[in-house]
Amino acid sequence: MMYFTQADIDQLILEDLPLHDETTRALALPDVPGSLTYCARQPGVLAGLAPLLRLAQSLGLRPEPLAADGDATAPGQAVLRVHGNAHALHMAWKQGMNLLEYLGGIASATRQMVDAARAGNPRIQVAGTRKAHPGARKLQHYAVLCGGGMVHRAGLSETILVFAQHRAFLPDLDAAQLVARAKAHSPEKFVLIEAESADDALVAARAGADGVQLDKMSPEQLTALVPQLRALQPRLTINAAGGIRPDNAAAFAASGVDVLVTSSLYNAKAADFGAVMQRL
């Protein structure tokens, strides 16, 4: 689903192991064979297993996956057993837990949002923005994918998204001129314009934008606006952003938009996992 480079994995290891494990050294812990088993403590959606498998292998351990990212988990369910010597098991233990808990929380929140939204529109997509925690975007986007969502934009190099902040530096260009300039310089890219009002959205649609992102509009406002936009441009992609939660996602989805764009998924409560070490 997503490729993690060795540099990604090494960074995870170095974050928790800048030099060595001082507790293991100070206790003179015997470096004998053992196992480490991760178990879910609550229902949820599994995420983080793929980078954890790579992390374990990089430390010379032998991981035995008992589930897959994207699977639903039940309380008490073992999702991974890792075999190897004690020192390396302790190096992997806590960072592995961090991956499963933080990414599992995001994946579970995403699945909840997707299920809620599709009660209002079975074709709706839920997209995680690039407004992720600095340094953690790739992992958080991976968790969104595991939960059944999609990535809105992985970064600035993807689709063209015109904000008011861009237009502040181009005051002499109207929407049609902005779209024409973007398409002339980047003809293969999708051109999306953010709109904060119905009038702005209608202007963007008439200007030939491929999509509009409707910011901080209520479901009622969207329900009234979407048919007008479709009448102008039937293939227009319409995103809704701002204030979208599991309890209102169905109403936003039922308005007729194509995508619900949110960054709230990254603030989800972490999943709860337990870890059991055994000497063999």
What does this structure look like?
- The structure is a single chain.
- The protein is an alpha/beta fold and 280 residues long.
- It has 2 domains: 6-114 and 269-279, Alpha-Beta Complex (Aldehyde Oxidoreductase, domain 3), CATH 3.90.1170.20; 122-267, Aldolase class I (TIM Barrel, Alpha-Beta Barrel), CATH 3.20.20.70.
- The protein has 10 helices and 13 strands.
- The protein has helices spanning 6-16, 22-26, 49-58, 86-118, 137-146, 164-167, 175-185, 198-206, 219-232, 249-254, and strands spanning 33-40, 44-45, 62-65, 72-73, 78-85, 125-128, 150-151, 160-162, 191-195, 211-215, 237-241, 259-262, 273-279.
- Strand 10, helix 9 and strand 11 (237-241) form a beta-alpha-beta unit.
- It is elongated, with a radius of gyration of 23 Å.
List the helices and strands and how they pair.
Elements: H1 6-16, H2 22-26, E1 33-40, E2 44-45, H3 49-58, E3 62-65, E4 72-73, E5 78-85, H4 86-118, E6 125-128, H5 137-146, E7 150-151, E8 160-162, H6 164-167, H7 175-185, E9 191-195, H8 198-206, E10 211-215, H9 219-232, E11 237-241, H10 249-254, E12 259-262, E13 273-279
Parallel strand pairs: 6-7, 6-12, 8-9, 9-10, 10-11, 11-12
Antiparallel strand pairs: 1-5, 1-13, 2-4, 3-5
